[in-house]
Design a protein that fits this description.
The complex is a heterodimer of chains A (203) and B (290). By secondary structure, chain A is an alpha+beta fold. Chain A contains six helices and ten strands, in the order E-H-E-E-H-E-E-H-E-E-H-H-E-H-E-E. Chain B is 70% helix and 1% strand. Classes of the chains: A alpha+beta (203), B mainly alpha (290).
């Protein structure tokens, strides 16, 4: 089994939005639509703190298709346009999409949208056009904070690759299991992981 | 989420047509209301066709529907199968009707299939990603709404053709359906308070810098006491109480007739429309910040 995904070391993310911009450029994402977004979570008063700076927490959370292990979007697709591929990614065969948008409704993260021009649903492809040639997804290769890492969850997070031919295990600060988080799971089993140390994970 | 009017019309008319078909099946099973059978069948068929066509207009590329349509886990596929089965049953029903009368067995099948289609239709909206929709109360609402609208339609036809026993059953089902709509919606108001969304607290989306934050704690109050309250409470009063009152008045033989039946049907459909609108607006994904 292979399950390709992205791991984001949130403590390294500076919220520069390079991932979001790079994705729009390389994938020709329509104006007003996004394949990934970087949300600012917080500032939130630290528990037990004074309630004022510096006793606050804030981090940046990149949200995109989570290429779920059990994607609800695939289950509800009547034509098989949404598919779970052998590499674990969820892809859309646009030639089969009838634009019913049930997959949009079934996605817990709201990351799918209707391309008004093509009248089909789109979302992050994990840059399959690049990864099949050995390159990194554009959001990973353009991450100036070295926060984003690409790889196979089944091979362990330490094996994930980033820019400069580094692996996550070689580069990032130590973390333990309690520091590894996922977005809310309503039975879809999201594949992406987020590493957040010291701060409280808020989702 | 964005309002999908085509799907709102689809669920409204499918529930209406299925409810009417189930009620005429019940009448056949009870050996009553022969005179209303043909007009009721035509009305139920027309309602399901209107619903089906509305659903069809929702598709962006209907021409590709033949390019692999049929994944059985899809609610749309299940709905299509359900509609085809019900329409085939209607054809059989029509054949028996032309021959003279409906066998009780066929009436029972119509009753079961009418209910089943509403259940199948509701199931396609059971999505864990949309917690406002994913509740058994949605089944109760759609079934009740099918019962009240179908009952009122049967009642109208029975009044028009002066079919006494069918008038009684139509008024009773309208009254019971209306009461169940009220029960379902009041229960929904309590259910909404228990719905869980991801709550990240303070946040900011740089792609929508002027959009205010979604406050999860107040989001769920929109239905009962916020901007969606007019739609919600009009669904309770107009869609439930009015048809129930009209049906009870006729049931107790205290008055009412064709006009009451017509008011009951229009109110049932208007209330159904209002509630569907409200839960579409409120039907955000469990992670609502993207």
């Amino acid at each position: 089994m292979t399950q390709l995904a992205i791991v984001t070391d949130i403590n390294r993310c500076v919220g520069c939005l390079a991932c979001s911009v790079a994705c729009k450029v390389i994938n020709n994402v329509p104006i007003g639509s996004f394949w990934n977004k970087t949300l600012r979570i917080g500032p939130t008063p630290t528990e037990g703190g004074s309630g004022n700076w510096p006793d606050v927490e804030m981090y940046f959370l990149n949200v995109s298709c989570q290429h779920c292990e059990e994607p609800q979007c695939v289950e509800v697709c009547p034509t098989g346009a949404s598919q779970k591929m052998e590499d674990g990614t969820v892809q859309i065969d646009k030639s089969k999409c009838i634009g019913c948008q049930f997959c949009v409704m079934a996605c817990p993260y709201n990351v799918r949208y209707l391309n008004e021009e093509e009248r089909v649903v789109e979302k992050c492809t994990l840059c399959t056009q690049r990864t099949t040639e050995g390159a990194l997804p554009q959001c990973v290769s353009q991450c100036c904070g070295m926060a984003r890492w690409y790889g196979d969850v089944e091979q362990g997070l330490d094996s994930f690759r980033g820019p400069n031919d580094m692996t996550l295990g070689e580069f990032v600060e130590d973390f333990d299991e309690a520091d590894v988080h996922q977005l809310i799971d309503v039975g879809n089993k999201p594949s992406y992981r987020y590493i957040l140390r010291k701060f409280r994970w808020r989702g | 989420m964005e309002i999908q009017w085509a799907l709102i019309i689809f669920t409204l008319f499918t529930a209406f047509g299925s409810g009417l078909f189930a009620i005429q099946g019940l009448l056949a099973l009870l050996g009553k209301g022969e005179k209303i059978q043909l007009p009721a069948l035509v009305t139920a068929f027309a309602a399901i066709v209107v619903g089906g066509l509305a659903s069809f207009t929702h598709l962006q590329h209907w021409d590709r529907a033949f390019n692999g349509f049929g994944r059985l886990t899809s609610g749309i596929t299940q709905e299509l199968i359900g509609i085809v089965v019900v329409v085939l049953c209607m054809v059989v029903y029509f054949v028996f009707l032309r021959r003279g009368s409906i066998p009780k067995g066929i009436g029972a099948v119509a009753l079961v299939l009418g209910v089943a289609l509403i259940v199948v239709m509701t199931t396609s909206y059971m999505m864990p990603a949309r917690p406002v929709w994913t509740t058994p109360l949605l089944y109760l609402f759609y079934l009740s709404q099918g019962l009240v609208a179908g009952g009122a339609a049967a009642w109208i036809i029975a009044e028009a053709v002066k079919e006494g026993p069918a008038v009684g059953l139509g008024a009773k089902t309208t009254a019971i359906g209306g009461a169940l709509v009220v029960v379902a919606l009041v229960a929904y108001a309590f259910y909404i308070a228990s719905v869980q969304f991801t709550d990240v607290g303070n946040y900011f989306d740089p792609t929508q810098p002027t959009k205010p934050m979604t406050d999860i704690s107040s989001y769920l109050t929109l239905l009962v006491s916020g901007s969606l309250a007019p739609q919600f409470w009009s669904a309770v009063v107009v869609g439930g109480m009015v048809p129930a009152a009209a049906g009870i008045i006729r049931w107790k033989k205290e008055g009412g007739g064709l006009a009451f039946a017509a008011v009951a049907l229009v109110a049932a459909l208007a209330g159904g429309l209002a509630f569907r609108f409200a839960i579409y607006v409120l039907g955000g994904s469990v992670f609502i910040f993207y």
